[in-house]
Amino acid sequence: MLTAIILEDEEDNRKLLTGFLRDYCPQIHLLAAVDTVDQAFAAINSFQPDVVFMDIQLKGETSFELLEKFSEIKFEIIFTTAYDSYMLNAIKLSAIDYLLKPINVAELKIAIEKAEKKRVQLMMNKNLEILLSNFRNNTADHQIAITSSDGFVFVKVSNIIYLEAESAYTVFFLKDNQKITTSKNLKLYEELLADHGFFRIHKSYMINMAEIAKYVRGDGGYLIMSNKATIEVSRRRKDEFLELFNKPLK
Length: 250
What we know:
Layout: E1 2-7, H1 11-24, E2 28-34, H2 37-47, E3 51-55, E4 57-58, E5 61-62, H3 63-67, E6 76-81, H4 85-93, E7 98-100, H5 105-118, H6 124-136, E8 143-148, E9 151-156, E10 160-166, E11 169-174, E12 179-182, H7 186-193, E13 198-202, E14 205-208, E15 212-216, E16 222-225, E17 230-232, H8 238-245
Parallel strand pairs: 1-2, 1-3, 3-6, 6-7
Antiparallel strand pairs: 4-5, 8-9, 10-11, 10-14, 11-12, 13-14, 15-16, 16-17
Helix pairs in contact: 4-6
């Protein structure tokens, strides 16, 4: 059994999630449903829940203001949010669970199953640190949480030279010659890193545009990266790549 609190400022959404938890998630014991940061802070300190369902954008405040009140996070977090590309990307980069509104019961059950397995992770504070940093600093050097066999590896996006698909896995090649293999596929990282100067140059490769040392012309041509790696340019992606490659730096 997991104890839980809901932070949601829209009454209809609060009632909907409360009903879903009551009707479909018997492993959840709901302790409180509140609508402000101050109320949530008091409820969390009073009840010490296992899980907090947090709406991100509240009336005049955000749930990040709540998280910054805690020196240590001792509860699992599942964000609930309407689609927002920047907010959602910050959450995904930090590898914290989220539910898109309108909430789907099947997805809610999956998120709760994850919370049951993880409970309170030692990594949670680090994940939140990255999330808050990425969210607050839109132009800063973001970090990404890469899922590994025994947890997460936290990497600055600027330290990634390129990514390579190996079947259903993805291999990260970093500036310090380190390689990290994750069970997530390259398509996921294509979506996450597209706004951070990365380009899917080939079905098997995604490159950091800032780490290109040389482009050699040819049918599709190929790239020499900063670590001397040679990467083929797909003929299908060549024109789009050259358009990006020839853009002046801002």
